[in-house]
Structure formats: structure tokens, C-alpha cells
């Protein structure tokens, strides 16, 4: 399924008590849609999914879907390292009206490739929605091998993968050996242009909170054959992309949004907000035309 080219892995706004701030969520959703986002991934790692309860996730899915009102696809992060829990949350998420499901690689318990296959197969069979795999070995301790992704792509409703392995050769193999309608997204902002060049669909981005229009212009320039323009934009936005990961994500993204006049609150422990010095360093790396007096 084609979800567009630039999807934002959306932060979850919190209020002063650390609860989900739904008013701020409405503001953020509307801002992202008019600033380059073709779709939204809700309650992924950037959305601090490890610290959200299932009830909070479902409330968030329901609310975001209502605010979006069909303007862009909403993809719900429902994966965990517990297959039964993943199936339960996935089936509940389907009832909230989301358009698709994203399932992260089971983390910590280090399953084999056959275990990964059966985990994803079981979760996909539990929903009629399109399913996106999420390969992120840096956070999960194991990666989904290209051969396993290729095998999983044969399951009808497994339609995409977010690839955050950083391995362009592996991604090329996946693109080459999966069905024509199976799409691969970069999970690393700074690899967006290289992934497009090998046949990828686009990016699921943290930086799109800040430079969504720039990333969208880069993608469209490449798609329209203006590779030089795409390369120039890539070079311009790379410092901002790096800045979003200078400290553990999503702390920089939340701080940057505040600087832009879009307050989304702090992060939940065990993540911590940026220090004053870190905020100063961040501000130097952000595009000045996006900054406001806020923050």
C-alpha cells in the first residue's frame, strides 16, 4: 500500500502532569498535515510508545484518526516483544479507525528469524489492515534478515517495511525481491535520498516535525528528475536531521517544536528533556526561518 512519501513519526504531546495533551495533539496533527506530512505514525518509538499504556495508545489512535478525518493515512504502532499482546492491541487498534498497523521488531528477547516470521505472521493474520514491518536492530538487538522480510512480503496484508538498519545493500535486495506493490521506507532521515535512489518509497521521519516541507520538496525534486536540486536540499537539511538525534529521541524534536511555537510538553522518564546548553546547541542547528520567539 502506498502511504505517500513523507510520513512523520509523531511525538506524543504531554501536559504539565505528564498526561497526553489532546489539545496540543490536535494542533500538532493539523500543523504536520499542512507542512509536508503525507501520513502520520502514531505511538511509535518517537511517540514514546514504551511509556504509553495500551489504553493511552487506543485513546490516541481514536483521537488522531478523528482529527485527521481522512486527510492522510494514520498508522498505529502496536508492536511489542509479546506476540499475544501485539495481537490484542492490533485488533483493538483496528476498531479505532486507523488505516494501517506498524509492528516493531520484538526487542530484548532476541527471537530467531523463524520466531520473527511467526510473530509477524500471527499479528498480520489477526487484522484486515495493511501491516508495515519495522526493522530497527539498533533498538531491538535483532534485525529482520532481508530473506525474512522477503518471505513476509508474500503475506497479503504485509505491504511495507520501515528499514532502519542503515544497510543500503540489504534494502536493495529487499526492494528487488519483494512484490511490486510492497514498499520500503527509510527509517533514517539522513538516508532518505539514498533510499529513493535504490527504489525506496520515502521516509518515516522525525525531522519532518521541523523540516517537513523541505523533505517533501527534496523527494518531489528527485521524483521529477531534478537530482541536483534534491542533492542540494539534502545537503542543506542534513544538519537539522543530525540535530534531531544529537540526544536520545524524541527529546530534541520536542524541544525544537517548542522553539517553533508548537509546545508539546516534555518527555516521560526514562527519557529526559534537553539541558539549557543542549537547547542552545540545538537552536544553532535548526533552520532560522522555522524558529519563533517561543522557547
From TrEMBL:
It catalyses: L-aspartate 4-semialdehyde + pyruvate = (2S,4S)-4-hydroxy-2,3,4,5-tetrahydrodipicolinate + H2O + H(+). GO terms for molecular function: 4-hydroxy-tetrahydrodipicolinate synthase activity. Pathway: Amino-acid biosynthesis; L-lysine biosynthesis via DAP pathway; (S)-tetrahydrodipicolinate from L-aspartate: step 3/4. The record marks 45, 108 as: Part of a proton relay during catalysis. Keywords: Amino-acid biosynthesis, Cytoplasm, Diaminopimelate biosynthesis, Lyase, Lysine biosynthesis, Schiff base. It comes from the Bacteria. The active site is at 134 (proton donor/acceptor), 162 (schiff-base intermediate with substrate). Pyruvate binds at residues 46, 204. Its EC number is 4.3.3.7. InterPro entries: Aldolase_TIM, DapA, DapA-like, Schiff_base-form_aldolases_AS, Schiff_base-form_aldolases_CS. SMART domains: DHDPS (SM01130). It is found in: Cytoplasm. Catalyzes the condensation of (S)-aspartate-beta-semialdehyde [(S)-ASA] and pyruvate to 4-hydroxy-tetrahydrodipicolinate (HTPA). NCBIfam families: dapA (TIGR00674). Belongs to the DapA family. Homotetramer; dimer of dimers. This is 4-hydroxy-tetrahydrodipicolinate synthase. It comes from Lentibacillus juripiscarius. The gene is dapA.
Amino acid at each position: 500500500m502506498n502511504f505517500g512519501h513523507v510520513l512523520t513519526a509523531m511525538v506524543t504531546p504531554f501536559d504539565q502532569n505528564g498526561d497526553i495533551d489532546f489539545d496540543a495533539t490536535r494542533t500538532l496533527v493539523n500543523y504536520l498535515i499542512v507542512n509536508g506530512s503525507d501520513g502520520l505514525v502514531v505511538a511509535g518509538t518517537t511517540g514514546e510508545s514504551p511509556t504509553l499504556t495500551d489504553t493511552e495508545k487506543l485513546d490516541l489512535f481514536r483521537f488522531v484518526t478523528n482529527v485527521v478525518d481522512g486527510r492522510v493515512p494514520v498508522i498505529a504502532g502496536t508492536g511489542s516483544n509479546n506476540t499475544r499482546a501485539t495481537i490484542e492491541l492490533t485488533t483493538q487498534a483496528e476498531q479505532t479507525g486507523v488505516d494501517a498497523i506498524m509492528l516493531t521488531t520484538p526487542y530484548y528477547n532476541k527471537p530467531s528469524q523463524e520466531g520473527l516470521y511467526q510473530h509477524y505472521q500471527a499479528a498480520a493474520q489477526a487484522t484486515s489492515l495493511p501491516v508495515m514491518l519495522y526493522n530497527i536492530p539498533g533498538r531491538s538487538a535483532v534485525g529482520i534478515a532481508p530473506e525474512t522480510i522477503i518471505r513476509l512480503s508474500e503475506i497479503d496484508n504485509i505491504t511495507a517495511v520501515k528499514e532502519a538498519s542503515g544497510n543500503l545493500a540489504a534494502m536493495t535486495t529487499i526492494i528487488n525481491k519483494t512484490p511490486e506493490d510492497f514498499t520500503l521506507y527509510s527509517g533514517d532521515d539522513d538516508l532518505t535520498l539514498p533510499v529513493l535512489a535504490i527504489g525506496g518509497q520515502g521516509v518515516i521521519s522525525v525531522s519532518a516535525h521541523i523540516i517537513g516541507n523541505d523533505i517533501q520538496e527534496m523527494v518531489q525534486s528527485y521524483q521529477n528528475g531534478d537530482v541536483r536540486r534534491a542533492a542540494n536540499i539534502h545537503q542543506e537539511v542534513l544538519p537539522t536531521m543530525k540535530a534531531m538525534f544529537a540526544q536520545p529521541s524524541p527529546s530534541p524534536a520536542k524541544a525544537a517544536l517548542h522553539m517553533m511555537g508548537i509546545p508539546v510538553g516534555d518527555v516521560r522518564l526514562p527519557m529526559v528533556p534537553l539541558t539549557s546548553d543542549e537547547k542552545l546547541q540545538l537552536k544553532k542547528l535548526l533552520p532560522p526561518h522555522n524558529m519563533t520567539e517561543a522557547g
